[in-house]
C-alpha cells in the first residue's frame, strides 16, 4: 500500500475549535493512502484517502484542564500511544478529503471539550401534588360507590 505524507499548509496557522482554543496545524500529521471501494483504475493509482493524527497529550493548544477533559472524553478513540486517528475517503479528491477530515477533527474536539450543563433537580409543586391526591380520592370514591350499590 502506497502512502504519502501531505505537506501541511500553514497559511492560516491554526484550526479554531472554540473561543480561546485553536490547534496549530503543525501539531496535525496528514498521510495520504490509497482509498478502498469502487472507482476502478482511478482508485488503484491515486492516494486520495487522508488520515489525520493528533496527540492531545502533547498538544500546546490545550490547557492542563482541557487536556485532561480531552483525554478522558476521547479515550475510546485514542490508540495505545494516546494518538487520535481520523480518516476521510468520501471523495475522489485528496484536497477535499483533507478539508473533510479537518472539519471532522474540529467537531470531534469541540464536542469533547464541551462542558455539559449541570442538572438542577426540580421539585414537584404543591399544586401538582394536590391535584394528584384529589384525582386519587375521586377515583377511590367512584370505586366505593360501585361497591356499596352492589352489596345492598
Question: Explain this structure to me?
Answer:
It is a single chain. With 152 residues, the protein is of the alpha+beta class. It folds into two domains: 3-113, Double Stranded RNA Binding Domain; 125-152. Helices cover 39% and strands 18% of the residues. The protein is built from four helices and six strands. It has helices spanning 41-45, 64-73, 94-113, 126-150; strands spanning 3-5, 14-18, 21-24, 29-33, 49-54, 84-88. The strands form two sheets. A four-stranded antiparallel sheet has the order 1-4-5-6, with helices on one face. Strands 2-3 form a two-stranded antiparallel sheet. The longest helix has 25 residues, at 126-150. It is elongated and about 90 Å long. The mean pLDDT is 85.
Largest sheet: 4 strands, antiparallel
**Total of DSSP H or I helical runs spanning 4+ residues:** 4
Q: Assign the CATH architecture of the largest domain.
A: 2-Layer Sandwich
What is the share of helical residues? 25-40%
Strand content: 15-25%
The mean pLDDT is 85
Level-1 CATH class name of the largest domain: Alpha Beta
Strand order of the largest sheet: 1-4-5-6
Written as H for each helix and E for each strand, in order along the chain, the element string is EEEEHEHEHH
Tally of discrete structural domains? 2
CATH topology of the largest domain: Double Stranded RNA Binding Domain
Number of strands: 6
- Please identify the structural class as seen in this structure: alpha+beta
General form:
elongated
End-to-end Cα distance, whole Å, is 92 Å
Q: What is the radius of gyration computed over CA atoms, rounded to a whole number of angstroms?
A: 29 Å
Which residues form runs of ≥5 with pLDDT under 50? none
Amino acid at each position: 500500500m502506497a502512502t504519502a505524507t501531505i505537506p501541511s499548509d500553514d497559511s492560516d496557522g491554526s484550526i479554531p475549535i472554540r473561543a480561546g482554543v485553536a490547534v496549530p496545524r503543525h501539531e496535525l500529521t496528514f498521510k495520504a493512502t490509497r482509498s478502498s471501494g469502487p472507482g476502478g483504475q482511478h482508485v488503484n493509482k491515486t492516494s486520495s484517502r487522508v488520515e489525520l493524527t493528533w496527540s492531545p497529550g502533547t498538544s500546546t493548544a490545550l490547557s492542563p484542564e482541557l487536556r485532561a477533559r480531552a483525554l478522558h472524553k476521547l479515550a475510546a478513540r485514542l490508540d495505545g500511544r494516546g494518538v487520535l486517528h481520523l480518516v476521510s475517503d468520501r471523495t475522489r479528491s485528496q484536497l477535499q478529503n483533507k478539508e473533510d477530515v479537518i472539519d471532522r477533527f474540529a467537531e470531534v474536539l469541540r464536542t469533547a471539550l464541551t462542558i455539559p450543563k449541570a442538572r438542577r433537580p426540580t421539585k414537584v409543586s404543591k399544586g401538582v401534588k394536590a391535584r394528584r391526591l384529589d384525582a386519587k380520592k375521586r377515583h377511590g370514591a367512584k370505586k366505593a360507590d360501585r361497591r356499596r350499590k352492589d352489596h345492598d
